[in-house]
Design goal:
Layout: H1 10-44, H2 53-72, H3 84-113, H4 118-122, H5 126-142, H6 144-156, H7 158-166, H8 170-175
Length: 180
């Protein structure tokens, strides 16, 4: 449904999805880019400095795509009518779990593509599982600001959020003047 309450056209749905993909990509690219930069700084201490932001962009695009898939599957939407803090945390946790499941699913598909035996695809070593779990926790925490902004936008609407963020007297215009 559009903000006017009318059903969205295909063009509006596509535009909405591309907008969501763009903002997810931008947030994730900044996140992964900063992690890449931090890793480069650590490597530079050993003389191994190498800057590759292309990998950060590719990962951001893949993860943004996974967010869209999760949205289509209504992941975390049971928390939509809860307080914003609960909804933000629930979605961060739900998507974190979805990302780890998607990671293992993707590895299985790649394994099948490379004609690996099913037993080899299913077998997961402890180190890989631990790394995936730690990455999932880091990702879940890192997604809290993303979901916070998304939930605030969903709650008050994009037009009101733009006023709040970009206009000098935005808070007063959206919420009214402060009581004295």
């Amino acid at each position: 449904m559009s903000e006017t309450g009318k059903p969205e056209t295909r063009k509006e749905k596509f535009s909405h999805e591309m907008n969501a993909l763009f903002w997810a990509f931008l947030y994730l690219f900044l996140l992964f880019g900063m992690l890449r930069l931090y890793g480069n700084i650590l490597l530079a201490k050993n003389g191994d400095m190498e800057i590759r932001f292309g990998l950060a962009a590719l990962n951001a695009l893949i993860f943004a795509k996974v967010i869209l898939i999760g949205n289509w599957m209504h992941i975390g939407q049971k928390s939509d009518n809860r307080p914003l803090l609960v909804s933000v945390i629930a979605k961060s946790v739900a998507f974190s779990g979805f990302f780890i499941a998607f990671h293992f699913f993707e590895e299985a598909v790649v394994g099948l593509f490379h004609h690996k035996p099913l037993a080899e695809i299913i077998r997961v070593d402890i180190a890989h599982l631990q790394a995936a779990m730690v990455a999932s926790v880091i990702f879940g925490v890192a997604m809290i600001p993303y979901f916070a902004m998304r939930e605030v936008t969903r709650s008050i609407g994009w037009d009101r959020l733009k006023v709040l963020l970009f206009e000098h007297d935005g808070v007063a215009r959206v919420f009214g003047p402060k009581p004295d």
